[in-house]
Amino acid sequence: MKQNLVEEERIQYLNHSPIRHRGDYLLYWMQASQRAEWNHALEYAILQANILRKPLLVFFGLTADFPEANQRHYQFMLEGLKETRAKLIKRGIKMAVKIGSPDTGVVEAAKRAVLAIVDRGYLRIQRTWREQAAKNLPCPLWQAESEVVIPVEVASDHEEYGAYTLRPKIRKLLKRFMRPVEEIQPEFSSLDLRPFEWETELSNIEDLIRTLPIDKTVPPVNLRGGTEEAKRKLRVFVTQKLPYYVKWRNDPTKNVLSEMSPYLHFGQISPLFIALQVVNADCGEPTSQEAYIEELIVRRELAANFVFYNSNYDSWNALPGWSWKTLTKHSKDLRKYLYSIEELEHAKTHDQLWNAAQKELLLTGKIHGYVRMYWGKKILEWSETPQEAFRIALYLNNKYALDGRDANSFAGVAWCFGKHDRPFSERPIFGKVRYMSLNGMQRKFPVHQYIQKVENLVHQLER
Asked: What residues does the Photolyase/cryptochrome alpha/beta domain cover (predicted)?
């Protein structure tokens, strides 16, 4: 048995109950890492199941009331879960899905478990689920981290001020944690375990969605969920787009982004797998590889650090003191334009670039990363108060973006208001918070081409 299969820093013991040797199976509570490969928590669970000579059962809690989630998010997630279930079956592992709050569902699923292992999430609700389950489970609950390359508390023991303070800490640890996840075979199949009366079938996603009491006002987008689709897009990125990434990544008229964020959000692909594919690529442009790793590891894990150590990550109170003070000082400044949340939501502003960004979000579930910065800055400029702007930006992003409602989204919105940034020259409304203008965007890329690209998409979908 390979006891060092997973770095020990990835493992935490959430309660101190003794292992129940008379149980029927070991339980892996899959919640954040929704994949059957490159998953530290899954492989660690298989290892422990083999040691205890038990089959492994995978449990997923399908809550119908995840904050701000809607049909767009559920469709994408369930497509991935259906694929994951099929891959687990090929490995001799049964996956049981229960509709309801995951923290109570896992207690039901663990009634015959010797031990439970769970993956890790960083948001308030994800941490609360694990804390509550740890108190109520009849067996031990161990946690294995697989959604970041460097475990959060190993990278830093406090909230970091910005990327420049976290970057050197990450770099010192990369060699230790940038190693492949070894896949091991379960020694005992769980496919013949008797079914639970509460199991939910995943074979017909459309029928399942119809029965779920979820918000159905936001339709799905033309983007398929699942690990295989994520890997296909990653192959295209590494072989065709990566050499041009550093040159054109801020130009939304050039299709050079990896499109990994929705798949990372739902845990359908491993950030470690992506990182190793990029650093080992023979793309002939090392600066592009370095720039992408900066975004994937340093910036993404700075966001995880933010939501983990700052309990106010989803509110105005998360901002650093300097930005809070300067925005408050300028909160009464005259706004040339003021838009209601309804006007913003339906892209009814005077700014064609902003409208195009919002339409892209409505129709595709994403905005090009560079344009999304401008999108957030303009909401600040066109709202009655910075507090109202913060609320609107989070609302629109979390409602429509496939990668909304996660650490990256909370950090991204907060960045528009000064988080993880520095003070700039003072100006009306923004104070010392970084300003972005239409003229500045026009110097970066052909804005009219981007607007036309989005309008063409609108016409295609209207046919």
From this structure: 24-152
- Tally of CB atoms within 10 A around 299: 18
Q: Is the pLDDT of residue 462 over 80?
A: no
Query: What residue type is 288 in one-letter code?
Result: S
**CA-to-CA distance for 107 and 29, rounded, in angstroms?**
10
Q: Which domains, and CATH codes, for the chain?
A: 1-146 (3.40.50.620), 148-183+227-309 (1.25.40.80), 316-462 (1.10.579.10)
CA 381 to chain centre: 27
For the chain, the average pLDDT equals 97
pTM greater than 0.70: yes
**Distance between CA atoms of residues 90 and 83, nearest Å:** 11
d(CA 3, CA 47): 8
How far from the centroid of its chain's Cα atoms is residue 422's Cα?
A: 25
The neighbouring-strand residues paired with 58 are 28, 95
